[in-house]
């Protein structure tokens, strides 16, 4: 399994055309290049159909964008944890604001991820939900107020109390959980601010994927981490 280190930059490719198929591979290679140049950990979360090919062409950690907690069997259309693992992913996003789950389903999905040795990144919209999720013992929690996602307004500036509150509560309940900050991360200063607020990295998407020069943005993010 490709090792995930902190601080971590996790780039969610979503279903953007700029990160689909061949373009997804190209973007992952840019992330790998910055990883080697700056000696920091950049991971990517492409669409399911791109995971296998991507795992053959880059060495950085790859996450699925979602998975279901089903067992092998008659579950047409579901995303089997074993298939993600076999394709080359090291982990999965769970409960992204665009793919929300009930708490019981989050619990079952985290458990299945652990069972097949996949890292679980559970997204939460505020400190209270983050605290509740931390009891389920995921590997990583990414706090992201959904109203700020894609706005270019970083949560670290607009709602820093959400980040600090999450860090305080989660560390009190389960200090082993890694905490990421997401929503509106567009510049290196946003990454640096997230780290100052106590997180161990960021979850980003459009700020990188839809940038005119993704390499330049990733490099700026990485340099912000190395200087923090």
Describe the structure.
The protein is globular and about 50 Å long. It has a single domain, classed as Aldolase class I (TIM Barrel), CATH 3.20.20. It has an eight-stranded parallel sheet. The model has no long low-confidence stretch (mean pLDDT 92). It contains ten helices and eight strands. The protein is of the alpha/beta class. The protein has helices spanning 22-38, 48-57, 81-87, 103-115, 127-134, 155-158, 160-173, 188-196, 206-209, 214-227; strands at 8-12, 41-45, 63-64, 91-94, 119-124, 140-143, 178-182, 201-204.
CATH topology: TIM Barrel
CATH superfamily: Aldolase class I
CATH class: Alpha Beta
- Largest sheet, order of strands side by side? 2-1-8-7-6-5-4-3
H/I helix tally: 10
CATH architecture designation: Alpha-Beta Barrel
What key phrases describe this protein's structure?
228 residues; 8 strands; 44% helix; 15% strand
Would you spell out the secondary-structure blueprint of this structure?
Elements: E1 8-12, H1 22-38, E2 41-45, H2 48-57, E3 63-64, H3 81-87, E4 91-94, H4 103-115, E5 119-124, H5 127-134, E6 140-143, H6 155-158, H7 160-173, E7 178-182, H8 188-196, E8 201-204, H9 206-209, H10 214-227
Helix pairs in contact: 1-2, 1-10, 5-7, 8-10
Short description:
The protein has helices at residues 22-38, 48-57, 81-87, 103-115, 127-134, 155-158, 160-173, 188-196, 206-209, 214-227, and strands at 8-12, 41-45, 63-64, 91-94, 119-124, 140-143, 178-182, 201-204. It has 228 residues and is α/β, with parallel strands linked by helices.
């Amino acid at each position: 399994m490709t090792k995930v280190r902190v601080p971590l930059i996790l780039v969610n490719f979503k279903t953007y055309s700029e990160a689909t198929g061949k373009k997804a591979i190209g973007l992952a290679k840019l992330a790998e290049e910055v990883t080697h140049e700056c000696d920091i950990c950049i991971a990517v979360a492409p669409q399911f159909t791109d995971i296998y090919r991507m795992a053959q062409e880059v060495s950085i950690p790859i996450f699925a964008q979602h998975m279901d907690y089903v067992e092998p069997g008659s579950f047409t259309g579901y995303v089997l944890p074993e298939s993600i693992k076999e394709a080359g992913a090291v982990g999965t996003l769970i409960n992204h604001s665009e793919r929300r789950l009930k708490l019981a389903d989050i619990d079952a999905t985290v458990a299945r991820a652990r069972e097949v040795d996949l890292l679980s990144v559970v997204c939460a919209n505020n400190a209270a939900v983050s605290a509740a999720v931390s009891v389920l013992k995921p590997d990583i929690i990414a706090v992201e107020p959904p109203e700020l996602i894609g706005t270019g307004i970083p949560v670290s500036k607009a709602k820093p109390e959400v980040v600090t509150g999450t860090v305080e509560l989660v560390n009190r309940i389960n200090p082993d959980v890694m905490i990421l900050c997401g929503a509106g991360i567009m510049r290196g200063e946003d990454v640096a601010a997230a780290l100052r607020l106590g997180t161990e990295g960021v979850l980003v998407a459009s700020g990188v994927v839809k940038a005119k020069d993704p390499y330049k943005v990733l490099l700026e993010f990485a340099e912000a981490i190395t200087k923090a």
